[in-house]
Amino acid sequence: MLDKTDTEAQQREAFLRDVLAGLSKSQQKTLPARWLYDERGSELFEEITQAPEYYPTRTETGILQDNAGAIAALFGPEAVILEYGAGAGIKTEIVLEALDRPSLYVPIDISGDFLAASAERIRERFAELVVEPVTADFTQEFDLPGDLPEAGRRGGFFPGSTIGNLDRAEALIFLKRMRRHVGEGGVAVVGCDLKKDVAILTAAYDDAGGVTAAFDLNILTRINRELGADIAVESFAHEARWNAATSAVEMHLVAQEPVTFSIDGRAFSMTAGETIHTENSRKYDVKGLTALVEEAGWSLDEVWTDEDKLFAVMGLKA
Ligand code: AVI
């Protein structure tokens, strides 16, 4: 059994490995987006969801509210709800509130502390509901609780367009895994941001208040703090770029001048204008989403969207 210190040491090792590998690349330097979410990064992400330019959270919340009855019908009575990533707060509550006597809610998240806090909030709000949190990285294989009730359907819930942060191969692996988890007769509700005017997209990932910039730059502060590096964070600026070929908004940290720094005794240098690519947020259209989910073995039962077709919530059947 690992204690907290072991897992923290392993986490630091994994972070160091990813940072050294990503920043050693001679062409495009990269950092995996999952490292954006330390405590400060998670706080900043919450702030992003409130930014006027960041339409996905409030749009998806509206779609869930407007279609709560249909979503509840898809899950059916006494459903077992598996939520992948347990930070959806109000969105989770809208769905749980609408369900007919759900038999179990299983939130799954890599951050045990965060998971415990959100599980507690759900227990307080829904006194009758049995909540069984699972600490796991849902992009990897993991075990569900062994004693899932059999009465109702199993339903996956994956809101927030997190599917857009996965590349196509990763999204397929995830969707197949979720299908295995819910089994024959199971269902899922998945939120995904849609392709739209590039100006709307880039503004959403570079808000005027500078919250997304702070979120992106925080990964450098994290590298300095956790890996004892000496990166001059003020020498970088955040940029959101649309990549039409991959249909993704990319976040980049752009060196504003030539920079040198060291991490774990290794020296790095970047030229002015060179960037570190920190995140992809892929955008789909309904045709592309249909092809994606069908390739993973699901059938697309319904697509709920908003008036402006900014965001889609899909109802899937296994
Ligand atoms: C978590 N994920 C769905 C967000 C997105 O929109 O891709 C992360 C984010 N990055 C910058 N703003 C929001």
UniProtKB/TrEMBL annotation:
GO terms for molecular function: L-histidine N(alpha)-methyltransferase activity. InterPro entries: EgtD, EgtD_Methyltrsf_superfamily, MeTrfase_dom, MeTrfase_EgtD-like, SAM-dependent_MTases_sf. Residues 17-316 form the Histidine-specific methyltransferase SAM-dependent domain. It is an enzyme of class 2 (transferase). Its EC number is 2.1.1.44. It comes from the Bacteria. Keywords: Methyltransferase, Transferase. GO terms for biological process: methylation. Pfam families: Methyltransf_33. The keyword Methyltransferase applies. This is L-histidine N(Alpha)-methyltransferase. It comes from Jiella pelagia. The lineage of its organism: Bacteria, Pseudomonadati, Pseudomonadota, Alphaproteobacteria, Hyphomicrobiales. The gene is egtD.
